[in-house]
Description:
Elements lengths: L9 H8 L1 H6 L1 H20 L2 H10 L10 H4 L4 H51 L2 H4 L4 H43 L1 H48 L1 H7 L2 H53 L5 H42 L21 E8 L9 E8 L4 E6 L5 H8 L7 E6 L2 E2 L5 H7 E4 L8 E2 H5 L8 H10 L3 H5 L8 E2 L8 H15 L3 E5 L7 H15 L3 E5 L3 H5 L3 E6 L2 E7 L2 E4 L3
Parallel strand pairs: 3-10, 3-11, 6-9, 9-10
Antiparallel strand pairs: 1-2, 1-4, 4-5, 7-8, 11-12, 12-13
Helix pairs in contact: 1-12, 3-6, 3-8, 4-6, 4-12, 6-8, 8-9, 8-12, 9-11, 9-12, 11-12, 16-18, 18-19
Amino acid sequence: MSRAGEGGNPFVDLGRRFLPEIRAVRNRLLLSLGFGWIAIAAGLLAPWPLKWLIDSVLPGNGLPGPFAEWSSGRPALELAVWVAGLALVASTLFTLAGSAQKLVDAGTRERLAMAIRMDMLRHLSRLSPDTTGDHRTGELVSRLIADTGTFVRLFTKTAPALARHGATVLFTLGAMFWLAPALGLLGCIVVPTLAWLARSFAAGLAEAARQKRKNEGALSALSQEVVQGMTSLQASGGVVEAQARFERSASDALRSGVREVRVAVSMERSLQLAQGAVFAGVLVIGAALVVRGQTTVGSLTVFVAYVSQLLKPVEKINELAGALARGLASGERIVAVLEREVQVVDRPGALPIPRVALPVEFHNVQFRYPGMDRNVLEDVNFRIEPGELTVLTGTSGSGKTTIAHLIARLFEPDQGEIRIGGRRLHEIELESLHAHTAFLSQRGHFFAGTLREALCFGHDRQADASLWEALSRVELDTFVRQLPAQLDAALGEDGANLSGGQRRRLGLAQVLLCDRPLVILDEPTTGVDAESQRVILSTLVSLASDRTTLVISHRGGVREIADVILQLEGRRIRRYHAAHASRDLTG
């Protein structure tokens, strides 16, 4: 994506990039354009009734042109009423067309923003975790919401306003030439001069807007981190350090915001001084033309009105230039996310898999995260059988969660093969694979809402009896029945109003309800009390009886109930223990 001043036209580039979304609202854009033309025409006609009143009606000459015969002999007051009516019609038409255009543009803006936000969210959901890891959560949220809104206004508000003002300038200059070539020539000199003056500030304003958006994104990201970690910060005495970081980030945002305002104010000051000189020039030249009999007082009033119309776009240049710069900067930030390459995609010929428990196999799998200088996994081989509880153990950072992510195909192995039911993983449709898999991460995640919504998340809504049965299996039913709203009780963001054990059990209830043949659980007993661990272990045994189950854990309790234990050590599976036998897999 080209930036302003780096070659190419960034507006055209962005329009081309989002052409499908823009085409979807093209009828609304055309309707807005039509209302805009009506408003322009009404604005051009608005000063003429005053000219007719001054030059023709008040001197008793009737109305000019096609109205001459009709108005001949009629009282001046009657004609003044008709002229006032024409002025009212033009003013009303201008107002109604402008209002209609704003309503249409607002609807278009919301539709386009929703389409682009959905595109971004779909794209983000297809990226591997390491691809989004170099963006802080708050910054991605800022791009998804704030930048999208700013960018969409570029095409639904700023660009139409620029087009409308441009058309107004052209037609106004044409009318001025028709009335008095001298004043028309003055307008032709003034407009390019003011445009050049505004453009001279454009590059600095664009860069200031870009830097401001960058710093605001960083501040938003830090704000989210501080709020999410506030409890830990309070308990560990980290509040002062967090406040210092926030102050530094806020200071950067402040400086960039002030710089943007300073550039904008400089441009506005220069333009306003130029406008004053233009208006004075029109008055002098217009008065001279009236004195010489080369134009009329009524025509001069039209000129004054037209000069005001010419200056209105100039008055808006500051606002529009700033909006243009912000919109382009936001568009570039959105495209930077959308152009992140999706590493894991369906390959040609990929097929769905049946919804039954199937074995999972690793054959000589090797994997390295981008940017790392050594492999996380090397020559990894193992097999997970349906109906057995397989536990993967290893030290922190040994690659246990990476294995889980590889099975879910969030990453692709660099070498080797992963098979499910004998079929290579890349031969399976991603949608089918993910519909086949229940994945409970170590941290887990719950959306704010109700317990019912949390239990039904990611699968079809089920009857209350099924929800209570799942809660009963994880021994949460008594707790939930004691809540005033029971299943409709409010659940805080990320289950903040539940204990650690309750969150893990609620996650297991989700797994039971979605009823997937392949279950992957990452540290399901970490941070829970003895009672919750007992419930979770009992649930794991029942889960594994008819599913392909992999549990990642370093806790002794989980290993005690395992049918198979895989020991990950030194980037390889070192020990394989099944039932009462064990063997070394390293050769």
